[in-house]
From TrEMBL:
GO terms for molecular function: transmembrane transporter activity. This is TRAP transporter small permease protein. GO terms for biological process: C4-dicarboxylate transport. The chain crosses the membrane at residues 21-40, 52-68, 89-108, 128-150. The complex comprises the extracytoplasmic solute receptor protein and the two transmembrane proteins. Part of the tripartite ATP-independent periplasmic (TRAP) transport system. Keywords: Cell inner membrane, Cell membrane, Membrane, Transmembrane, Transmembrane helix, Transport. It is found in: Cell inner membrane. It is a multi-pass membrane protein. Pfam families: DctQ (PF04290).
Length: 163
């Protein structure tokens, strides 16, 4: 069972990395083509700038998801150096609980926002609905919430082994 879970986890990680790489490559190509078109032909693609903004949002949230996966997200680290090992584990539990709460609230309210955008039929540009570009916000924060919650029992087990 553990082997199956590790395989599923690796597939998800690779998918996240592939999606990030594709979006980043697309951003570079699209931004580069905009520069060339504007400088050489005094025109550009009407949909390029809104697309780039949405792609930046997606790459940023995929990066935050990856940082949470690797436990390399921003953290205020004032006490962990002076606390004993079991104190560090307890501090990690408090940190992950707080982070899960904040990410969960953001996921909830951004999901409501995306729902309202879908209901109103707001257009991002041309025929693309705005909610398609914004759906990464609740999904990203929900994934981060789940990852923080999953880490809590791991920190508690670390605390038990440190005692």
């Amino acid at each position: 069972m553990t082997k199956l879970l590790q395989t599923i986890r690796q597939i998800i990680h690779r998918f996240e990395e592939l999606l990030t790489a594709i979006l980043l490559g697309g951003m570079i190509l699209l931004a580069g083509s905009q520069i060339v078109l504007r400088n050489l032909f005094d025109s550009g693609l009407i949909w390029a700038d809104p697309s780039l903004r949405i792609m930046v949002l997606w790459v940023a949230l995929l990066g935050a998801i990856a940082a949470t996966r690797e436990n390399r997200h921003i953290r205020i680290d004032l006490l962990s150096h002076v606390l004993p090992k079991h104190g560090q584990s307890l501090l990690s539990v408090v940190h992950d609980l707080f982070s899960a709460l904040v990410c969960g609230l953001i996921a909830w309210h951004s999901a409501r926002f995306v729902y309202f955008e879908w209901q109103d039929g707001t257009q991002l540009f041309s025929i693309l609905p705005a909610w398609i570009g914004e759906i990464i916000i609740p999904i990203g924060f929900a994934i981060m919430t789940i990852r923080f919650i999953v880490n809590i029992p791991l920190h508690l087990m670390e605390r038990e082994t440190a005692s």
